Amino acid sequence: MKKALSMLLAVAMAASLLTACGGTTSTPASTPASTSGAASAASEGAQGDYAGQTLKVAAIETAYGSEMWQKVADAFEAKTGATVELTTDKNLEDVIDPQMKAGNFYDVIHLATGREKALPETMLKENALADLTDVLSMQVLGEEVTVGEKIIPGFTGNLTTNPYNDDKVYMMPMFYSPCGLFYNKANFTEGGGTLTLPTTWDEFFALADQTDIPLFTYPTAGYLDAFIYAMIPEVGGQEFFNSALRYDEATWASEEIGQMYDVLGKLAANTEKSTPSNGNADNFLKNQQLVLDNKALFMPNGNWVIGEMADAPRADGFEWGFMALPAMEQGGDRYSYTFFEQCWVPAGSQNQDLAKVFISYLYSDEAAAIFAEAGAVQPIVGMTDKLSDDNKVYYSVYDNGAKAAIGTFATTKPVEGMNFKQIFCFTMDSVVNGTKTVDQWQADMQDACKTMAAAME
């Protein structure tokens, strides 16, 4: 599995400058921040090289929980003698952004791009992140291997880790997840049902004549970023994908993009009608529940949904299924977007040397095992071999013929008044509700891309 995925990602990188998903996809919920400011008992009296130093770490709390971060912080303290002040929260931006605006910078932050508040993107536009290129050549703390040697090829050198389209790394790849379509196997022949799993979009929409169940839902429209990112190379290939992510005007006005919006329009017409009203931080679980209740056939998501819905009620015989997006035509390429979260260091951090040591430790076998126990898988060579059979179902999607799409839109200078993700993803709500047409959505994207292209670094 590891070898196959590595080869796929390497091939994808050779074909293009890949870029990565904003999968929205940290859990959009809210709980109070948890902060551990004292050294753990294990580190008390530790005589490591960094004894007496304090590192401020902030991490988004997602479906993986926050306990794994505390365990990693404790282990790092024990190994180095440093003190880790750990802050976790489900709405981390609300906690750390006011602090940093006041000049109180954290040293290491785990917070992905693609979230609605776009804090990492804003800091990138302001050149406010530290250069982490040298971390790749650092030895992993406690191991005889470099960080770069441990990371699966393709997860650095893309427009997410290297956002200024040069050889400098500003964001380190962390937990990754194939993104695709989740469904109830019991509805399809593979699980004893009567429906045939579609391999093309024509077959997908033909299901509307075979069942009364609406074909589609989405947790929030923000989750459609990974979905659309996978559709772009399906209609045009890898070089086309690169051009689209650089806001190329001809690409976004092309016949291929028109074909993609035709599919999105058909999806909107076949979306369960309550989806937009529940597509928010308070009610997104209701949309995910639609699949468990057989009230929607397919839903774009990442594998964290399994944990999020672990205790939710479900239809008799329900079993999670997962597949790449259907192809545009028979025999065409099918894609699964690879979303990965990122770890970064604010340029205003006062302890960047220790921050880099901590980041190197995140790729250690010791830390990776702690994360994996919570279900968080890093792009580390050999990690997939250690997964449970259930997780291998999702991470093996690339072994089953799907191609990997990796990338996010290129970083630009700040554009006042522009909420690009709102246009890119959330217009789907308006199309489903009938307040906009899919043609208007495509036209809005063309206008937005012209504006963003003019603001390219």
Share of residues in strands: 5-15%
- Main sheet characteristics: 9 strands, mixed
CATH fourth-tier homologous superfamily of the largest domain: Periplasmic binding protein-like II
Structural class label: alpha/beta
How helix-rich are the residues, as a percent range?
25-40%
**How many distinct helices?**
18
Describe the global form.
globular
Distance between the termini: 38 Å
Helix-strand topology string? HEEHEHEHHEHHHHHHHEHEEHHHEHH
CATH class identity of the largest domain: Alpha Beta
The appropriate CATH architecture of the largest domain is: 3-Layer(aba) Sandwich
Low-confidence sequence ranges: 1-47
Can you put this structure into words, describing what you see?
The chain folds into two domains: 17-176 and 340-387, D-Maltodextrin-Binding Protein, domain 2 (3-Layer(aba) Sandwich); 179-337 and 414-454, Periplasmic binding protein-like II (D-Maltodextrin-Binding Protein, domain 2). Helices cover 37% and strands 12% of the residues. Strands 1, 2, 3, 4, 5, 6, 7, 8 and 9 form a nine-stranded mixed sheet that branches. Helix 2 links the parallel strand 2 and strand 3 (83-89). Helix 10 packs across helix 18 (438-454). The protein is of the alpha/beta class. It has helices at residues 2-15, 67-80, 92-101, 119-125, 147-150, 201-206, 224-236, 238-245, 249-252, 255-269, 275-278, 284-292, 304-308, 352-362, 365-373, 389-395, 420-433, 438-454, and strands spanning 34-36, 54-60, 83-89, 108-110, 172-184, 299-302, 320-323, 335-344, 403-405. It is built from 18 helices and nine strands. The radius of gyration is 22 Å and the shape is globular.
